[in-house]
Design a protein that fits this description.
Pfam families: BPD_transp_2 (PF02653). It is found in: Cell membrane. Keywords: Cell inner membrane, Cell membrane, Membrane, Transmembrane, Transmembrane helix, Transport. The complex is composed of two ATP-binding proteins (LsrA), two transmembrane proteins (LsrC and LsrD) and a solute-binding protein (LsrB). The protein has about 325 residues and is mainly alpha-helical. It has one domain: ABC transporter involved in vitamin B12 uptake, BtuC. Strands 1-2 form a two-stranded antiparallel ribbon. Helix 2 packs parallel to helix 13 and helix 12 runs parallel beside helix 14. It is globular.
């Protein structure tokens, strides 16, 4: 009985539960403000809107679990989306297009991993540099031109539906599930948590920290590469200079709101998923409420501060209980 009570309290005090409740409350508020918010078509729109950011956030979360950061995610998305469009326009099969995009993303992740793990450059500086390198490469590859005119079969991935749900959102769910399995049941996933929790202890335990960091950054790049193909299919036109320009901030916001720590070793894949959904609901609700676009970033920043404050309060409460007991 006592174990059940402890388990229940743990769930109720978790960051994920708080976010879930917040999503419900915010949804109710926007449903009252706007009649269109709760309509089936708008719910489907929200699912579509959060898919790309969501897939990328799950990928970047793997790096954040390590105590790292990836500011180059938007540039990687731009390069992969542009290359996907160019490849599919060359009459290459869809499978080849996806594999090429994922491979390009992995190469970008390898670059970041090499800079961070091998050269020991601080992640924020390394990925800031690679962000500009990859963005420039994307513009060079496309010649600064818009990439468009994709086949209808390709656009079907980003714009199609299965059982009434957008295909990109279903892929987001699948990526989330696979990532959750990785960190819960696969050895390398647990090692990533261990490195993020205490890198010195991980090294003393014999873990190959460099290899683990490389794996996390490569997997992050692969995930963004997949998102790049889906994004190109969804929007139908790609501009290498602007695609994903604000993605890095949105991903970091979703991860922090989801309970992840910049210091690593904390948070869950479910938290990242819920963080993305919460931001998507807020953004959609503000747009329907005819709030100025300039306020959306301000509201997002405020939500981050609230999430961090709640997390800090929870940590203090846990520490007090440990002290009392």
């Amino acid at each position: 009985m006592e174990d059940k009570i402890k388990k229940k309290n743990k769930i109720l005090e978790s960051q994920e539960f708080m976010i879930f409740i917040f999503i419900i409350v915010v949804s109710i508020v926007f449903a009252v403000i706007s009649d269109n918010f709760s309509s089936p078509s708008n719910i489907q729109l929200i699912f579509s809107q959060v898919a790309i950011n969501g897939i990328c956030t799950i990928g970047v979360s793997m790096v954040v679990f390590l105590g790292g950061i990836d500011l180059s995610s938007g540039s990687i998305l731009s390069l992969c989306a542009a290359c996907s469009g160019m490849i599919v326009n060359s009459d290459m099969p869809l499978v080849v297009t996806i594999l090429c995009s994922v491979l390009i993303g992995m190469c970008c992740g390898l670059l970041n991993g090499f800079l961070v793990a091998r050269l020991r450059i601080p992640p924020i500086i390394a990925t800031l540099a690679s962000m500009n390198i990859i963005r420039g490469l994307a513009i060079i590859v496309t010649g600064g031109d818009w990439i468009t005119g994709f086949p209808k079969s390709f656009n079907g991935i980003g714009q199609g539906r299965v059982f009434g749900l957008p295909i990109p959102f279903l892929i987001f769910l699948a990526v989330t599930a696979l990532a959750a399995i990785l960190f819960r049941y696969v050895n390398i996933g647990r090692k990533i948590y261990a490195v993020g929790g205490n890198i010195a202890a991980a090294e003393l335990a014999g873990l190959n920290v460099v290899r683990i960091k490389l794996f996390a950054y490569i997997l992050c790049g692969a995930t963004i590469g997949l998102a790049g193909t889906i994004y190109a299919s969804m929007v139908g036109t790609i501009s290498a200079s602007t695609t994903g320009s604000s993605l890095g901030f949105q991903i970091l916001a979703a991860a922090l709101i989801g309970g992840l720590s910049i210091n690593g070793g904390k948070g869950t894949v479910l938290g990242s998923f819920l963080g993305v959904v919460l931001l998507g609901v807020i953004k959609n609700g503000l747009i329907l409420s005819k709030v100025s676009e300039y306020w959306i970033d301000a509201v997002t920043g405020s939500v981050i501060l609230i999430a961090l404050a709640i997390n800090a309060v929870q940590i203090i409460r846990r520490q007090r209980r440990i002290t009392i007991s």
